[in-house]
Write the structure tokens for this entry.
Amino acid sequence: MVARMSGEWNLPVGAWELDRDYCPTLTQAGVQMLARLRGHPSAPMYRNRSGNKLLADEVQALREYEREVMDAAIVWNLEAPPAWLPAFIARTYATVPYYQACGSPPARLLDVAPISRAELAHDIAAFVPDNVDLARMINFQTTGTTGHPLLIASHPLVAGRYLAYHKRALQRFGITLRHGAGQVGVMLLGHQRRCFTYVSVTPTMGESGLAKINLHVDDWRHPDDRARYLDAMAPEMIAGDPISFAELLTLPMTHQPAALLSVSMMLLPGMRKRLEERFGCPVLDIYSLNEVGPVAVFDEQAGGHVLLQHRLYVEILDADGRPVPDGERGEITVTGGFNFCLPLVRYRTGDYASLAHGPHGPVLVGLAGRSPLRYRTSTSDWINNIDITHALKPLAIALFGVHQYADGAVELRLSPGAMPQAGHARALLAPFFGPITVEVLLAEDKIIQYTSDLQDAYA
């Protein structure tokens, strides 16, 4: 247990010494930052420990990588694919077990059969290159809000690269992050009954502070502490999803960050406008996938989401896996990426758009990604759809759907093979909804997992 006494959370004996295990290059300035994040009188309960895990040479490598990302031009099109593509395919076929089993690399990318989240979920190890240093590899599990729950293979360097693409997105809107030692750079928001929360530092930004907090009131001594803490920490950038931002709008916070970054779910224009008016800063809608990282940022002048990764090739495929002409709608399919632990070749994302080319480079137009959704409980409270994912974690199921009808009734849809677990599923969801119905889900691949007939369900 972690208890709070006299305005501070009392951590288990020896916990402070663990910080260097999570942040190997930690200096005294970093130690002071972590103490500030944890020790403020209004601080939340931080339930977990995490950190950048970066070694000194990796920090320097990230600085060089960031310069490459910021300066890179993305100028390919369907007639002229990027020059790096053939070598990437050859290397992937030579080192990745799944593709080694396919034989020699084909002459054309079009001859590679597309894959989906289902293949990754079935055996993620088959997609990890043989030459990856397993001692430095990390992994995390996605919540599976729209498809198969998935274990992602990654690395501290890969996690550190996210910031470079966020900076590239911010650069489009004239924003340069400047916070360093003694300042809080990034605050990551969640709003769930159960949420992974931690504090860390960003070594490439002078060990500026980074914290993942949960805005749900259960993680705070007093609901008013949420605004007090955010004002006291004054993060330069706040990242979250539309559900956590909807909760942020209810707080009497006075601090104005340099920018808000919405990731993980589709941000509707009305919500973006409300946030910009409330906080007086740009609100960036980042299209991001756990499997791929930040893919694109919405730019109204460009007419859609402008691609961010200079080593990511995007195709738009029809239902049969054939590329469609520019301007025609289809499934976003990616090749490449910056995660060297999970190189992807023609990976179907399950999201849809058309592709346009112009002065802004490749642009995803009319992107239809994953919409944020909330559910009304039997006590008329609202819960995040991720809370349902967490509740159903004990079940050994890969595919399910949850629908709420206009009268508040909830239906859980399970694949035929999972129906023997229907009784357990009813018990897991009963604390939220009381009795629910369970029906057979007739689907073989990624589905729209969370749906509702309630007008207020969409943040």
